[in-house]
Structure prediction request, 415 residues.
Amino acid sequence: MPGTLVDKQQLNIAIIGSGLGGLSAAIALRRQNHYVTIYERYDFGGEVGASLSCASNGSRFLEEWDVPVKSAKPVILKSLIMHEWESGAVKGQYDLGDYREQFGTDYNNFHRIDLHTVLKETAVGAEGQGPPCSLKTWHKAVRMNAEAGTIEFENGNAASADVIIAADGIRSLSRAQLGITPSITPSTSCCYRCIIPASRLRELGLEQFITSDAIEFWGGYGISKIVMSACSNNEVVSCYCFYPAQYNDLKEDGWNISTTGENLVKTYPGLDPRLHKLFLHADDIKMWRLYIHEPYPYWTKGRVALLGDAAHPMLPDQSQGACMAMEDAGALGILFSTKYETMSVAQRLEMYERVRKERACKVQSASAKARTDLSERIGWSSKTDRPGKLTIEEVCGYDMHAHIEQLVREGLSCR
Ligand SMILES: Cc1cc2nc3c(=O)[nH]c(=O)nc-3n(C[C@H](O)[C@H](O)[C@H](O)COP(=O)(O)OP(=O)(O)OC[C@H]3O[C@@H](n4cnc5c(N)ncnc54)[C@H](O)[C@@H]3O)c2cc1C
Prediction:
């Protein structure tokens, strides 16, 4: 039973979903010598290509887990740049120059497929600490018994585990299995993302966007905002383009809705002409419909814990969704280490929820605020200008090891 005081130390752990969160959890837990099996409904053909900035609160765990970060071809961000909407002139710059000194790691900007590939190799590779994880594709989890720790898959297979981590993303089916009914409201914003190879930008005379080592913004006060950054060793430039959802047929949804560069240009009349030029030559322009998710009442039940977007889906405007998933994974790695071996599975999962829920929900709420107010985004914010506002210090300077130690100490002293 999960409630017994000391469980066996080498656990069988099942992870549902091999996105950035599930793979991070797999790595963190294999390193603590547990047997990890990851169940993924697809075989990765549908991975979405776009940039993903990984602040130090995520990058710190990548380093701690010996993930070969350089193999994921990061661009190391040096600043945030704000442009005039129409002329493109630089109207503000936040310098991240001493970021590594201040927060202990670089501010990495990845192509999400590069990061996914490196995490997958690290999870299943023979090298590295702990037993390599096993990855089973075409295993869509359709039912779970949280108390018994069992999973049934669409293909007819079944599995049981000491712990189940449900990392099945923003449209998680696992939540319902735990009795959680999400409260979801469509956002008034939608997002197109597109990528363009550096070689094409050079041909277009737009090389300034390849090597700025910055996240560059246009707009952001109101719904419309363009967020641009280079990734993949500066070989690719990626843009997220936010616009009013009413421009779309509201019935359209899914990951694979494409549009044309011409439509993107039409969406933003009067925008910096360099961006119009870029849009007309961009590849792979896809729509992301955005939703606002309220926090869930709980994340764990029996042997199951939610992780990543399954636990705390958030709007992308703090660039923190994947970092929060890495933090979740970090917490599991710490709590399921020998340091906390006197705690039962149930106690560790309870502590996981305690250490993670409040912090992730704060970032979730701050992401919604930053949707239409760039000054709410960490990086543009300072400690003092608005009470309760999320700051770069509290997000990037977070010491989870110390936080868990303190919560466990407090928990023990209350007994
Ligand atoms: C426009 C945009 C920009 C973003 N930019 C950033 C950024 O700059 N920085 C950042 O930190 N975050 C960013 N994010 C957020 C980040 O992408 C997500 O938070 C992160 O990818 C979540 O990872 P996950 O593993 O929880 O979920 P996912 O990546 O969605 O993975 C879920 C996995 O589970 C699988 N799955 C689903 N259901 C089942 C099932 N029933 N059985 C088995 N497998 C299943 C799926 O196939 C998938 O592989 C952005 C998000 C968006 C939309």
Remarks:
- Residues 1-6 have pLDDT under 50 and may be disordered.
- The pocket of flavin-adenine dinucleotide is lined by residues 16-22, 39-42, 52-54, 140-141, 167-170, 173, 191, 193, 240, 288, 308-310, 316, 319-323, 325 (CB under 6 Å).
- Residues 12-63+112-182+295-413 form a domain with the FAD/NAD(P)-binding domain fold (CATH 3.50.50.60).
